[in-house]
Design goal:
This protein has 3 domains: 93 residues, Non-ribosomal Peptide Synthetase Peptidyl Carrier Protein, Chain A, CATH 1.10.1200; 75 residues; 52 residues. Helices cover 55% and strands 9% of the residues. The chain has a two-stranded antiparallel sheet. It is flat, with a radius of gyration of 23 Å.
Amino acid sequence: MNMTSSTANTPATSEYVLRVLVDSHRQQCQWDDAADPDAKLTFSTTVDDWRDACDLLEWRQLGHALNEAWGLTHTDEEWRGVLEPADTRTLCDVCNFISRNATMPELRPIRILGKVCKPAATFLAIRSILQDAGADVSKIAPSTPIDEYARHHLLAFLGPISKLAPGALPPMKMHKPLYDVCVIGFGIGFLTMGVSFALCHWVPHLLAVAALGLAVGGVSYFGIGFTARRPPRRVEFGDIRTFRDLAIAIS
């Protein structure tokens, strides 16, 4: 069995950059209520519409985020020339600009018993990405479940691993029950406070209910911040259960 390095970086194309942006939007819609699942991103999509579809930041912060995501070092003024004016600049401008200096991963063939095995190359690439993300990959085998690694290194799955083949990963489902409880508690608490406070002129006893609603809403608000930073209880990518399934899906 002859196994060599499984990936190489090659110059990115604008089409590849667009596929990554489209896939990022698709996955974002699974967990971010502010993202627009009906939006269709194409080269002709304006930056304004792109920002609305993905709930993105203003141009300066967006440029910084794109620098980090693609390993670039463009200045604010360079990004401003690509992202502004947002109602006339398009994703074609953005993708062309990123592709000039960005790279994309290319899987190198691995031969096992004289035959090229693309899933094996993908498996090694995934292990390498997780190792770079700080995961202990010494016990990862093709039959290893992905669940714990996806929980603790979700950004690696949605970022570099997804970039191996944009669009190949099934839509993510993230389970964070405590976060969901805090969001519901926040809404119910402040709704109760508002309604009770509005009616306490006629029913004075409702002032205590309003205070209780404020307390529930306040505790839930801080709970949202705390639980949002905690790993999800479970992360699912469709029928993918093991690293073998993941490698085959990306291959």
